[in-house]
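Quarterly update from the structural biology core.
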Amino acid sequence: MDIRPIDDEYSVSGQITVEDLDQIKAMGFKSIVCHRPDHESPDQTPFSVIEARAKELGLEITHVPVGPMGVTEEAVQGMVDALDEFPRPMLGYCRSGARSTAIYQKTHHIRG
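Predicted structure, tokenized:
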């Protein structure tokens, strides 16, 4: 797991696993946004599995997938909603962290 801070409220990472969630919680993250569509690669942990464990740990979590079409208007709105509703600091993840960074930058311009 390679967590990279974007600012005080938001950091990004490549794919996380269920085993990473305890460390994510211990690092002080309060919410997680998954930007990776399920079934993108065969070795990927499904969102539902990560979601179940995150909720057990008391972390807020949502799925705002960004697929081959790139950052869509629907995805941007989902991220805006997550930023408005979820506590921070927040961790966004996808395969490499690039989509999580891109969508945050787009929503950051909208939210001001």
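Residues 4-111 form a domain with the Protein-Tyrosine Phosphatase; Chain A fold (CATH 3.90.190.10).
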